[in-house]
């Protein structure tokens, strides 16, 4: 379907469609208020691990119990591939999402 490549507009449309799935899952499953940083981090995490993973996660249970401080540690647990091997790229991605949750960037700076 995309043998000729994608235009910038097509790329943005596909990304928005994928993000909508994550955003819809968060809207449906999260029962507590989120700051913008928390929402952004959780959207990134859900986009990457999937809405099914969010639905059945300890992260969601702790979040809905208002244990916001437990969420970064839960995010960083999701670093293995389907064979159970830790993937360095996933370790970095989860660390960034955990920083985002706390209102920090990947260098530990508040924004």
> Segments where pLDDT lies below 50 for 5+ residues?
none
Taking all Cα atoms into account, the compactness measure Rg is 15 Å
Shape by Cα distribution: globular
N-to-C span: 40 Å
Structural class determined from secondary elements: mainly alpha
What percentage of amino acids are in beta strands? under 5%
Element layout with pairings:
Layout: H1 8-29, H2 36-49, H3 51-55, H4 58-64, H5 71-75, H6 88-101
Structure description:
With 111 residues, the protein is mainly alpha-helical. α1 crosses α2 and α2 packs antiparallel against α6 (88-101). Helix content is 60%, strand content 0%. It has helices at 8-29, 36-49, 51-55, 58-64, 71-75, 88-101.
Task: Report a brief summary of the structure.
The chain is mostly helical. The protein has helices at residues 8-29, 36-49, 51-55, 58-64, 71-75, 88-101.
List keywords for this structure.
111 residues; mainly alpha; 6 helices; 0% strand; globular
């Amino acid at each position: 379907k995309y043998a000729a490549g994608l235009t910038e507009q097509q790329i943005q449309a596909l990304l928005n469609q994928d993000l909508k799935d994550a955003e819809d899952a968060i809207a449906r499953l999260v029962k507590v208020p989120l700051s913008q940083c928390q929402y952004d981090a959780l959207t990134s995490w859900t986009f990457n691990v999937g809405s099914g993973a969010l639905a059945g996660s300890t992260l969601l249970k702790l979040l809905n119990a208002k244990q916001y401080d437990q969420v970064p540690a839960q995010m960083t647990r999701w670093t293995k591939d389907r064979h159970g091997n830790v993937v360095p790229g996933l370790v970095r991605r989860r660390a960034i999402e955990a920083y985002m949750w706390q209102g920090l960037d990947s260098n530990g700076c508040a924004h």
